[in-house]
Amino acid sequence: MIEQTVEIATKDGATTTFIVHPEREGPYPVVLFFMDAPAIREELRDMARRIAAVGYYVMLPNLYYRKGVMEMADLPPLPQDAARERMFEFMNSLTIPAVMDDADALQDFADRDPAAGLGPIGTLGYCMSGQYAIAFAARWPERVGAAASIYGVRLVTDEADSPHLAAAKALGELYFACAEHDPWAPLEMVEALDQSIKSRKLNAEVELYPGVHHGFAFPQRPAYDRPAAERHWERLFALWRRNLI
């Protein structure tokens, strides 16, 4: 595997981005991997490596660069409640337009790297970033071949860029993996998303993972559920095989 960490210029500065892809000659389809609220960490890099190992050019950007933050572990330690409040402050500082500008810069970088393919790309977001994966598919419908939101939040809102509305603007295949027990995406929200997608007959699927909790795919989280996590990998790899050619 070839790994590098680069500074990619954006409208608001530069985002430190972890890039990984197979060592053998490419090019490889691009997957934009948007982090969850706890920020960049080795757990996410390992997930990026798993994706790259099957033949993808994976980009994992730091979305908190505007706050001068890279990894939570680098920040001064705080009591649990205070640390959680700080994390939510960082998360709430992000907006879909700002992250879309960042994603544009990432794609521009990839388009200039011979190791990255120029064909359809995939987007992947967990937790706070599920909405960003779907939003980029709506922003570039001719380019994004597949987008996946894994226990994404704010799936149905009153905003014009709500994921349930953005889904209708995408041409690529969309996949929403939702946990049965998730205070950030309760079952009534998941049902509203599913009904919206089915009523529009979109190229999308909402899958409810029974018995699991928000965060089930992260090995280092208390909510980790190995069978569900492995199923989500199977679903992602199948999604990309169908669409990222």
Quick summary of this structure?
This protein has 245 residues and is an alpha/beta fold. Helix content is 36%, strand content 24%.
Describe this structure in words.
This protein has 245 residues and is α/β, with parallel strands linked by helices. The protein has one domain: 3-Layer(aba) Sandwich (Rossmann fold). 36% of the residues lie in helices and 24% in strands. The protein has seven helices and eight strands. Strands 1-2-4-3-5-6-7-8 form an eight-stranded mixed sheet, sandwiched between helices.
CATH fold category name: Rossmann fold
Overall strand count: 8
Number of helical segments? 7
Strand order of the largest sheet: 1-2-4-3-5-6-7-8
Mean pLDDT: 94
- Indicate the overall shape: globular
